[in-house]
Design brief:
Elements: E1 6-9, H1 10-15, E2 34-39, E3 50-60, H2 62-71, E4 75-76, H3 82-92, E5 100-102, E6 105-117, E7 120-123, E8 146-153, E9 162-166, E10 180-187, E11 208-213, E12 218-223, E13 246-257, E14 269-275, E15 279-284, E16 292-298, E17 301-309, E18 328-329, E19 336-346, E20 358-369, E21 376-381, E22 394-398, H4 404-407, E23 408-411, E24 418-422, E25 433-439, E26 448-459, E27 473-477, E28 481-487, E29 492-493, E30 499-501, E31 510-517, E32 521-526, E33 529-534, E34 537-538, H5 539-542, E35 548-553, E36 560-572
Antiparallel strand pairs: 1-12, 2-3, 3-10, 4-10, 5-6, 6-7, 6-8, 8-9, 11-12, 13-20, 14-19, 15-18, 15-20, 16-17, 16-19, 21-36, 22-25, 23-24, 24-36, 25-35, 26-31, 26-36, 27-28, 27-35, 28-29, 28-34, 29-30, 31-32, 32-33
């Protein structure tokens, strides 16, 4: 999450008693389990607002969520465009703890839409209700009690479509739920304030904390995780360098064999990280068989207890436990290198008979770097020791019903694992593509590099009229254009379905590098040698407009057996691609 610092006079800090806070307690008697925050910057077509999803231990009514949002200093999120709708949805799309499941579907957090009359809807801010994204058949005002808006999808999946949801106890008589355990708060673009106006800040309710000092006469402060800055009343307001931080995301496979006896596992898993200020972590449960609790340490200091986590297929009292922690914000931390450690504690249940023998999983760490244009903005690294679906990727089986485990598997052992794909039995003639997708990680204004180490072990004959070597492929899509590569045993196919090479033996291991500039062009390398360059395909020609990174069987025609040893996506402000 991007934060903006408030620089205040040291004398002013001495007059305020500010305590660090990890979250607000604006719903009486409830402390949030977790929060997810993101700023929608103007540079990405946004409004510079900050959106914060709040997860509670107990469900609340819409009225309670509305009041809590106001006490946060914001309001329940309002949606006035398709882009804003997708941005807010993506905040919670991959964390099902924020969703309420009933037999008819999955309902997302409370938002700021409400029914003004039988056929008129409005937003809590009074903004015009000019955009909507209703699920087919909605709003239906079932039972005459559905009067609020939330995300909705049939079954266990999630989507950015809307449903009209009840928020009164009258729904209970109809067998409907009327409370949710999460809500989304929107904060307007923060304004610069002077020290003399801080007396108007409600310090008992706002999430205010001191971050530290910079020199002899300054300090940083955050209010509702928002953007404020000044040095003193006699000087011009200014933003501090953290405003230009760039986010780096890294995955770490965990495989710890406990040398201790009992439920506390020794040694701890630890990793050294470098960051400018941001430190966020997310732990994803693997396919193990017992409950687990993690204690997170930064530089030897315990900073977070995750609470009890479950496992896939858990029953009874463990069936409702989460399978990941969501992103936990441990920052801001001081600039430099830090030691991040996780210590596991088991609990009797499942296959645990009283002591923890080993534990595994995936740790995703987000850090920040400065704005020096020699530093990459974003890094997405696939951990090939666990299925991508456990790392936030979406698995799609389009046109067939083949489950993920029938197509993809992990071979080898850490740290030399291989992601194995086999779609040879899936069928052809448009019977399906089986692909992983990671959404909204691409900045369409910047160049990117996608590196994949892979090989093709087998490939079925194409059933289409032209060449089709996308039985295994990978690529990057932006809202304006697409960059895709298909690998056959003896051919490489480019973004415009053209064969860009037929001399390389792709049954052998190679490092493939796709370097692209959205709206301009791409270069493609094999083992460091330039093989092809050209233009991307336009979204209009593709018939698809989105923001994603993907890999797998990308076609309903050709199938393939492939192995992937590494996958890394990066973007950098100084990575131009010269295409003539």
């Amino acid at each position: 999450m991007e934060k903006f610092s408030v620089i205040i006079a040291l004398a002013l800090v001495a007059c305020l008693s500010l305590a660090a806070s990890s979250g607000s307690d604006n719903v009486e008697g409830q402390t949030p389990i977790d929060t997810l925050s993101a700023k929608w910057p103007i540079s990405s077509g946004g409004n510079d607002h900050i959106y914060k999803a709040i997860l509670l231990p107990n469900a609340i009514t819409w009225d309670e969520a509305n009041a809590a949002a106001k006490l946060e200093g914001g309001y329940l999120a309002t949606i006035t465009s398709a882009a804003e709708n997708e941005f807010i949805f993506n905040l919670v799309s991959n964390d099902k703890r924020y969703w309420h499941y009933e037999q008819w579907g999955n309902t997302g957090p409370w938002m700021g839409g409400y029914r003004k009359s039988s056929d008129e809807w409005g937003w809590v801010t009074g903004e015009p209700f000019t955009y909507s994204n209703w699920f087919p058949g909605e709003p239906n005002n079932w039972g005459g009690v559905n009067d609020k808006i939330a995300f909705f999808e049939r079954g266990h999946e999630t989507s950015s479509k809307w449903d009209d949801v009840s928020s009164t106890s009258a729904a209970e008589n109809l067998g409907l739920f009327w409370k949710l355990n999460s809500y989304i708060v929107e904060f307007d673009t923060p304004t610069i304030i002077k020290p003399s106006t801080l007396e108007n800040v409600n310090t008992s309710r706002s999430n205010i904390y001191q971050e530290g000092r910079d020199g002899a006469d300054t300090a940083y402060m955050y209010i509702n995780d928002s953007a404020l800055s000044f040095r003193n009343e006699s000087r011009t307001a200014q933003d501090v360098p953290r405003q230009s931080d760039q986010i780096i995301e890294q995955s770490y496979p965990i495989d710890v064999q406990c040398t201790s006896q009992g439920e506390i596992c020794e040694p701890a898993f630890s990793v050294s990280i470098d960051t400018r200020s941001i430190l966020q972590v997310k732990y994803i449960v693997p396919n193990h068989c017992s409950p687990l609790r993690l204690y997170i340490y930064v530089d030897g200091v315990l900073v977070k207890d995750t609470g009890l986590l479950g496992w896939p297929g858990a029953t009874g009292e463990f069936s409702s436990l989460p399978l990941d922690t969501g992103f936990i914000d441990l920052g801001p931390v001081s600039s430099g290198r830090h030691t991040l450690a996780l210590k596991a504690e088991g609990r009797s249940g499942g296959c645990n008979n009283g002591y923890l023998m080993a534990w595994e999983g995936t740790l995703i760490v987000r850090t920040s770097s400065g704005s020096d244009n020699t530093i990459r903005d974003k890094i997405v690294v696939l951990d090939t020791c666990s299925l991508p679906s456990t790392q936030g990727w979406k698995y799609w089986a389009l046109g067939d019903n083949y489950p993920e485990e029938n197509v993809f598997s992990i071979r080898g052992s850490s740290p030399n694992c291989i992601l194995h794909q086999d779609t040879m039995a899936v069928g052809s003639a448009n019977q399906g593509s089986n692909v992983y997708e990671l959404f909204d990680k691409v900045d369409p204004s910047k160049p990117f590099v996608l590196k994949v180490k892979a090989r093709i072990l087998d490939e079925s004959e194409t059933v289409s009229s032209g060449p089709n070597h996308f039985g295994f492929g990978f690529g990057v899509d932006t809202p304006s254009d697409g960059f895709s590569i298909g690998l056959g045993k003896k051919a490489i196919q480019g973004p415009n379905n053209d064969i860009i090479d037929n001399t390389i033996d792709n049954t052998q291991w190679h490092e493939y590098k796709l370097a692209g500039t959205p709206g301009e062009g791409y270069e493609f390398y094999v083992d460091g040698s330039l093989v092809a360059l050209g233009k991307p395909i336009t979204s209009e020609s593709m018939g698809y407009s989105g923001n994603r990174i993907y890999l797998g069987d990308c076609t309903g025609g050709t199938n393939a057996i492939a192995e992937i040893a590494s996958f890394e996506f990066t973007q950098s402000v100084n990575q131009p691609v010269d295409v003539t």
